[in-house]
Amino acid sequence: MIRTARYLSWIVWQYLFSLAGMGALLIGFQVLITPPSEAEFAAGRIVGMAFSTALLFPTLLELSMLPAYLPLSLSMGVTRRGFFWGAQVAKLHLALGIAAIFELMQIATQLIFGSPALFYGRSLAGVCMGILVCAALGETLGFVGMRFGRWGITAMCVLIGLLAGVVGGVIGFMSVSDGNEAGVLLDSVIGLLSNTSLLGAVVLALMLVLAGVDTALCRRFTVR
Fold first, then answer.
1. Where are the alpha helices (DSSP H) in the chain?
2. Are 94 and 135 in contact, with CB atoms under 8 Å apart?
């Protein structure tokens, strides 16, 4: 387990450093093209893009890592149980790392554009829990895809793309249709993420269910 955790965490941190660099480039690009009169809108764009990426990136990364590294690890003598628990450690590193990058981007946006921080304290903890759930969902979809072969993985990628498109379309429609509706949507999201007791219970239940599914699927996977 320790060897798998170190190996997968090393891969995860490489992606995290790349993601942090992309965030810095995004902020720098917005600084160059944004006039002072549109600073508030630029800050909103940066935080919105960072929030969307924080939820979508771990899902896609976990979905792509399993088909690549599970067969390789098993062929090198790693047990299924060792790989599973090592993957859980790497998944925790991924969630905490993305939450830290998200908060750093928020702080940078606040300092540069003078905008207030939207996610802090309890709401930031809620964001971290949401990232963890997305990573767990990506892991489960990866196991499901591997169980049904290449077509299963393709179907999972298409499903995630459709869901992301629908959510992004709804958010975009709300933001351009009426400022009041966008404000209500944002307040609802922050209120949901700030309810850490309820959100924590829901996240724990989802994590247990997804872990049970992952365990059952991991046991059925055979090295080819």
1. 2-33, 39-75, 80-113, 122-147, 149-177, 179-194, 196-220
2. yes
Entry pTM: 0.78
Asked if residue 135 lies in contact with residue 95, where contact means CB atoms within 8 angstroms, the answer is: yes
Instruction: Take residue 138 and report the two structure tokens written for it.
Output: 């990506």
| C-alpha of 24 from chain center | 18
Whether 19 and 57 have beta carbons less than 8 Å apart is answered as yes
The pLDDT value given to residue 167: 63
Residue among 216, 202, 224 nearest 84 (CA) = 216
How far, in Å, CA of 141 to CA of 49, rounded?
24
Encode pLDDT of 121-131 as tens digits: 777 788 888 88
Task: Give the pLDDT score at 66.
Answer: 76
**What is the pLDDT at residue 185?**
60
Domain ranges of the chain: 2-219
- The Cα 188–Cα 118 span in angstroms is 12
Dihedral sign for Cα 127, 131, 136, 142, please.
positive
